[in-house]
Amino acid sequence: MATMITSECINCGACEPECPNNAISQGEEIYVIDPLLCTECVGFHDYEACAAVCPVDCCVTDPNNVESEEALITRARAIHQDVAFSESFESRFRKGGETAAPSSAPKKSEPRPAPSAAAAPASPGGAAPAAPEIAGPLNGDESEAILTPLPGIETWEIPVRCFKCNESYLVAVSRFMIGNVLFCPHCHKSMVVKDNLNFRIRTLLKELYDGWERDAAQIRARRERELRDFSERRAKELRDFETRQRQALEKIKAQLRETSESYDAPGRPAKRGSPFGWG
Ligand code: SF4
Ligand code: SF4
Q1: Which DSSP string do the residues of 251-275 spell out, in sequence order?
Q2: Which residue from 56, 109, 143 has its CB within 8 A of the most atoms of ligand 2, so it is best to mutate?
Q3: Could you tell me which of 90, 8, 7, 87 has the C-alpha nearest to residue 41?
Q4: Quick check: pTM over 0.90?
Q5: What is the pLDDT of residues 176-196, one digit of tens each?
Q6: What distance in angstroms lies between residue 14's CA and the mean position of ligand 2's atoms?
Q7: Contact at 8 Å (CB) between 62 and 4?
Q8: What is the CATH class of 3-94?
């Protein structure tokens, strides 16, 4: 897919100098990408350079313009005839593949962090909440990771600090029912779940889930709207272009007819004047 810029563009210009093919320019309203020059950075990077620097994430793949890696590297070779692309040229298609060059994509900003035991900040000396594993991106595109649904709330594990030995251990969220007894695996000291601990934990998780779903719904709606707007704009541009082409054809036909009809060819009989006139 070629890359396109959606109407969310704020005209910051950050993407333009990043393009290895000079495919980006300032359009009438926003920056635009020439699809005949865009190679999705194949040959140069294993990521789209414009998307990597765009502060509002409006450089997105165009689902209406799907192109193969072969077509894109062929285009890159045609544009950069002075560059010798090796067989293991960089390509977003082979990101993470055996022959792919190591990714050097700049970190514009960290994506929304998925909760995970490794990523969650550990409390001083204690265990971090063990979040359930999150499924990979829906379509392999990192920009879609935000649309990944969270796994069930019951799959979370909560860190507990033993007040006797001061060690931490993880307990399934479902065990936090008032009156449940938890045992420290290190010193076997018991602890009873009291008060509204269960309520507080579930409230925190519910807020996370509600916000996650709300954000995902908003971004889905926004992306659909952008794609629809883009398709409509492109269809209109195509219609206008066809109209101009038809008008140009009609015009040239009329000009050719006029030229041939008015041509004063040698031997052509002169126009006769009126028998009642003076000419
Ligand atoms: S994806 Fe790469 S080649 Fe295409 S416009 Fe963006 S920077 Fe240029
Ligand atoms: S970086 Fe993004 S917002 Fe800035 S001009 Fe390029 S497409 Fe528009």
Answers
A1: HHHHHHHHHHHT---TTPPPPPPPT
A2: 56
A3: 90
A4: no
A5: 887 788 889 999 888 888 767
A6: 6
A7: yes
A8: alpha beta
